[in-house]
Amino acid sequence: MDGCSIIAFHSLPHFVSLSLQDQHGAGSQRSQEADKPHRRKGERKYSCDECGKSFTHMSSLKRHLVFHSDIKPYSCDQCGKSFTQKSSLSMHKFIHSIKPYRCDMCGRSYTRSGHLKSHQVIHSGVKPFKCDLCGKSYTQAGHLKNHKVIHSGVKPFRCDLCGKSFTEMKSLKRHEVFHTGAKPFSCDQCGKCFTRKEGLENHKLIHSGLKPYSCDQCGRAFTCRKNLWIHQITHSGIKLYSCDVCGKTFSHLGSRNKHLRIHTGQDVCCCDLCGKRFVTYSNLQIHKLTHTEERPYKCELCDKAYKAPNSLKVHQKSHTRKRLYKCSYCDVSCWVFLILLF
């Protein structure tokens, strides 16, 4: 945390105080001076009819009453978030500029130390809050609560442009940005643009080579937390999404939707040599290698080569993974369970 950041962060309470003075102006100060002869010290003669809270000044009551209304006249020009008071907007704007608390493991920065501490739990791997419906675990109780809405099926927040519905308002707002086509955050290394700053920060990890999010079951590492979550579902064995046509089950909704295209015939690619059908062109190209002797995917650690990238990935684990599976009849141990069957 450098000197400039410390001074700027320290001056925040003073800045908010000055903003309040600017908001109400000299006339408000004269009003307060006029009130002084009419009140005793500590007396709260102005009360709110909505909640009963009392105030010593009429101006304070007026500021408070705004909270009971839906009026939020002060909006942030960077993210669109609105506030009832100008001082709250001024405090919020620091989020877009000053982030003095930085994570040593992944480089993400935060405006408050509490936010950094909550983030650092992610790197510890501890997830004490588990969903009793699907087994997915979370580092914070709030994240689990938000996740459970998915199982309820309730999606009250609907996009007016495409009709897509969401469980949370913040998810809807993130989605609506895609309709604008605006991508203000660009990577200075490759030029790729993003609609959100978080997307750019996650993308930059690709160039750095850092993969701070690792799976505690197989050791596979990922650049962003979302990809780790998607990967971990495969270890759970839970397959919530099933095909209505053939009954095949899937761990991910996207995989199920791709599979459905086989039954509908929509955008299905067929092999001209054997007639086998694929839902993506890339899978068809990989399949076609089975009809040839070409093995373009080579291991950098040994001389072995493979026709498909997935086969290479499975092989590469043999150089790094522990031998987790042990034969019950002899002392042989393997890193893939299926090897023990032969």
Walk me through this protein's architecture.
The protein has 342 residues and is of the alpha+beta class. 41% of the residues lie in helices and 13% in strands. It has helices at residues 3-10, 12-35, 58-65, 86-92, 113-124, 141-152, 169-180, 197-208, 225-236, 253-264, 281-288, 309-320, and strands at residues 46-47, 54-55, 74-75, 82-83, 101-102, 109-110, 129-130, 137-138, 157-158, 165-166, 185-186, 193-194, 213-214, 221-222, 241-242, 249-250, 269-270, 277-278, 297-298, 305-306, 325-326, 333-334. Strands 1-2 form a two-stranded antiparallel ribbon. Strands 3-4 form a two-stranded antiparallel sheet. A two-stranded antiparallel ribbon has the order 5-6. The model is unreliable at 1-39 and 336-342 (pLDDT under 50).
Oligomer: single chain
**CATH architecture designation of the largest domain:** 2-Layer Sandwich
Shape: elongated
For this structure, the CATH topology of the largest domain is Double Stranded RNA Binding Domain
Q: How many strands in all?
A: 22
In spatial order, strands of the major sheet run 1-2
Percent of residues in β-strands: 5-15%
Largest sheet: 2 strands, antiparallel
CATH superfamily of the largest domain: Classic Zinc Finger
Distinct helical segment count = 12
Q: Runs with pLDDT <50, length 5+?
A: 1-39, 336-342
**Which whole number gives the mean pLDDT?**
76
Q: Given this structure, which CATH class of the largest domain is correct?
A: Alpha Beta
Radius of gyration: 29 Å
Tally of individual domains: 3
Distance between the termini: 58 Å
Structural class: alpha+beta
Helical amount among residues, as a percent range?
40-55%
